[in-house]
Design a protein that fits this description.
The chain has 292 residues and is an all-alpha fold. It is built from 19 helices and no strands. Keywords: Annexin, Repeat.
């Protein structure tokens, strides 16, 4: 791991992130360097907003990446949710990624920022983009909370829903969005012992459509959110890679890097080099920070 990580450890707001305050940070000098780089294409950039300067100096994937890095974390998550619902069709997996990996408290903060940015209620927007059992799941995730429960009772309830003539997603939605993580880990373990199946296998076997996708991702995130995010990264699709890396670079990208390495046998740093190129690659590598 690169030595700058340890030098910046005490300054870091989340030591599992890859983007952190630097012990050798010189804002005045760095601002001059950024200005000089942009002035190659932008006239008198010092008088402009940095975002506007980036938009005029750059284009394509690199522009998109740098503009997203300029967004505060909550604003960026709100932006990703809005983009997932924009235009024709809905990007269900991006919605689920954010809703399943963020705490109830974080989602309430994101909802407030969404209202400020887009003058729209996030819950109403999600209602308009989803339907049926999937809508119930998405809204329950947005409003998730920790309610006391009994592990054995929850296991029995989920097992009964699986064995019904038609599997009922209702109990799964209610329980998996309203218990704390340690409780849910015990519930899933108990359910596997009771059913003789891995939980994701049971979900795939008994449910269909969007609600199957949603419950499957939710189960994966309960069992190991970093493994789920690492699996998403293996697609090496630019929007997915960019979204996850920007979202988590200040918080826990090191954990995702470790999960990716364990899952694939190759570091994220090396995999990025095999897939992307040019300045966009250099920017992604700077966010990734180093080899594992």
């Amino acid at each position: 791991m690169d030595p700058d990580y340890f030098r910046s450890y005490d300054m870091c707001w989340g030591t599992l992130g890859t983007v952190r305050p630097s012990s050798i940070f010189h804002p005045d000098r760095d601002a001059i360097e950024i200005q000089a780089a942009l002035e190659k294409k932008v006239f008198n950039v010092i008088l402009q907003d940095l975002s506007a300067g980036v938009k005029k100096a750059l284009s394509g994937e690199l522009q998109s990446l740098l503009l997203e890095l300029l967004m505060p974390p909550l604003q960026y998550e709100a932006h990703r949710l809005q983009q997932a619902m924009a235009g024709i069709g809905t990007d269900e997996e991006t919605l689920l990624e954010i809703l399943c990996t963020r705490s109830g408290k974080r989602l309430r903060e994101i909802s407030a920022v969404y209202q400020q940015l887009f003058k729209k209620d996030l819950e109403k927007e999600l209602k308009g983009e989803t339907s049926g059992d999937f809508a119930k799941l998405v809204l329950a995730l947005l409003n998730k909370e920790d309610v006391a429960g009994v592990v054995r009772r929850d296991v029995e309830t989920l097992f009964a829903s699986l064995n019904a003539k038609k599997a009922d997603p209702g109990p799964w939605i209610d329980i998996l969005t309203s218990r704390d993580l340690s409780h849910l880990e015990k519930v899933l373990m108990g359910l596997e012992l009771e059913s003789g199946l891995m939980v994701d296998q049971a979900v795939e076997k008994r449910f269909t459509g969007d609600v199957q996708l949603g419950l499957s991702i939710l189960v994966q995130c309960i069992e190991g959110p970093y493994v789920y995010l690492a699996k998403r990264l293996t697609t090496m699709k630019a929007p997915i890679v960019q979204g996850i890396m920007v979202s988590h670079c200040e918080e826990d990208l090191l954990c995702i890097r470790a999960a990716f390495n364990k899952l694939t046998g190759t570091s994220l740093y090396t995999t990025l080099q095999n897939k992307f190129k040019g300045d966009y690659l250099h920017a992604l590598l700077a966010i990734c920070r180093s080899e594992d």
